[in-house]
Amino acid sequence: MDFYALAWSAGLSLLFFILVFRPLELVFPAKPGQRFFRPAWFTDLCFFLGQYFLWGGLVLWILSHFNGWLDEIVSQTFRHAVASQPWWLQAIEVVLLSDLITYWGHRLQHRVGFLWRFHAVHHSAEHLDWLAAHREHPLDSIYTIGLVNLPAFVLGFPIETLAGFIAFRGLWAIYIHSNVRLPTGPLRILLGAPELHHWHHARDAGNAGNYGNISPLLDILFGTHTCPNHEPEHFGLNEPAPSGYLGYLLQPFLPAKRKDDQLSPTAGETDTAPSQEVDSILADEARSSFRTVP
Ligand SMILES: [Zn+2]
Ligand SMILES: [Zn+2]
Q: What's the chain's average pLDDT?
């Protein structure tokens, strides 16, 4: 895609998100009074533009190679058996499997120090809104998008037929970061909501729980669901932020200060010993009354 096409696509998307999400944030604010140009707005705009101009094409290129590699190792007999099912059954299978894999993949991002280094960039946002949803390290995006689409790749779904599903997931991810709290009532058991994901980003709650994306059912099933009836006081990490977009891109590669241990109370458990800071955060978590994460 040439530069002008990318610029049109980025500009139209930006306009669409502002027109859809900004009125919602004004009418149903989760944190009333949060300004449109809140702190770090420009940094998050860089993440947004980076996704469109720098990383989107790279992510698609890597995923198509990943898909080609899976094509070679999955048997054609299996593919034919899958394809012979009714289309609606295949669609349900893909959605359910994709949610299950995303849930556990997300938990791993918080457990494995190496994955947390990249995922921590997303959790560094101190203000949540539709734009903050784009704060994601490109390697973290490849991991997440790869997992979301893994069942479709393995089952042999052509990417074109999944375009709607992928677009919906993308829009949903932006919605759950928006500064919105809608009165969804009993639907909250079935459908995820911004408040659930906001608690996933809560700074003093250990940045854990509510790993599901579209539905909270897996969180309820695996005991990681949490939803107090108010917003978290603070988002982000107990750690000084790098300066600017480039700093965030480089941060996961820096060897400094056993950072992957310090950033997340649950990170590093599989490959490094917990530091004193982690112990103290875990102790705080144990005292917390709403936490249901084991
Ligand atoms: Zn997370
Ligand atoms: Zn998030």
A: 81
The whole-angstrom separation of Cα 67 and Cα 187 is 35
Question: Which ligand approaches the C-alpha of residue 144 most closely?
Answer: 1
Structure tokens given for 191 = 């459908």
Would you give the distance in Å from CA 2 to the centre of its chain? 28
Rounded CA gap, 79 and 81, in Å?
Answer: 5
Sequence-distant (6+) residues with CB within 8 A of 74 are 154, 156
Nearest to 140 by CA among 158, 161, 122, 166: 122
Helix (H) or strand (E) holding 73: helix 56-73
Distance between CA 165 and CA 148 in Å, rounded?
Answer: 10
The CA distance from 259 to 268, in Å, is 10
Q: Output the CA 211–ligand 2 centroid distance in Å.
A: 9
Q: How far is the CA of 208 from the centre of ligand 2 (A)?
A: 11
Q: How far is the CA of 121 from the centre of ligand 1 (A)?
A: 10
Instruction: Provide the residue type at 10 as one letter.
Output: A
pLDDT beneath 70, residues of the chain: 1, 158-162, 205-208, 256-294
Say if CB 267 and CB 111 are below 8 A apart: yes
Spell out the residues 6+ positions from residue 157 whose beta carbon is closer than 8 angstroms to its own: 90, 94
- Over residues 212-224, the pLDDT tens digits come to 988 899 999 999 9
CA separation for the pair 214, 115 (Å, rounded): 22
Instruction: Tell me the pTM.
Output: 0.81
Find out whether 259 and 275 touch, Cβ atoms under 8 Å. Answer: no
